[in-house]
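thread: overnight batch results

M.L. [08:02]
morning all. the overnight job finished for the chain we discussed friday. pasting input first so we're all looking at the same thing
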Amino acid sequence: MRSLSSHSMTSPATFDSLIAEMSLLKHPFYQKWSKGELTLKDLQIYAKEYFHLVNRIPSIVERVRVRADERNHALAGMIEKNRIEEQEHVDLWKRFAKSLGVSEQELITYKPSATVTAAVMELEQLADGTFEEGVITMYSLEAELPKIAKTKKEGLCEWYNLSSEDAQIYFDEHLKEEEHLQVWRGVGVDAKRGETIAKRSLQAQNKVLDGVCELCGIMSC
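M.L. [08:03]
and the structure it wrote out:
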């Protein structure tokens, strides 16, 4: 058994600077979104590809909840609440896709690209690790969601004339992520291992957008 004295325990919030450094807001796809440089077709491709991640997040959180249950962890109930809310977000994404002219049937039957499939699989595998690794995976995924949601909403209104409730509601919901983040921040994690997992989670998230860029023919990814 490894000595606890050789390991520095910390809060997932310790990785906030790394999350900012690898922020999705720096990704070429979201940069183009904010500048109004995407076409409707680009947004439709994004809606269909990104749905693969949105649809899998509840099961990613479920993996973390199972690990919490195994430990009889005090936060297991709150993690289950997070999972239920993530399941509700799937329907909100369907409304966003509908505002772009993508039907629910098209969304559900769409086969995501190999790049996006691999990226989501990486996030699932990270959540299949220890309880702490799953927590860091989710914290890294959710930490900047309010900021990201705000810029997406602004872009949709300013450049794409998408200000309807259907177009905005998914992003409105993600402006209110603090409750989820407080759950993850309540878990002590190993600083060194945690940084590795956070980095891998962020790389996978960026890879999802890389896959969208590939299909949109955006070469600057």
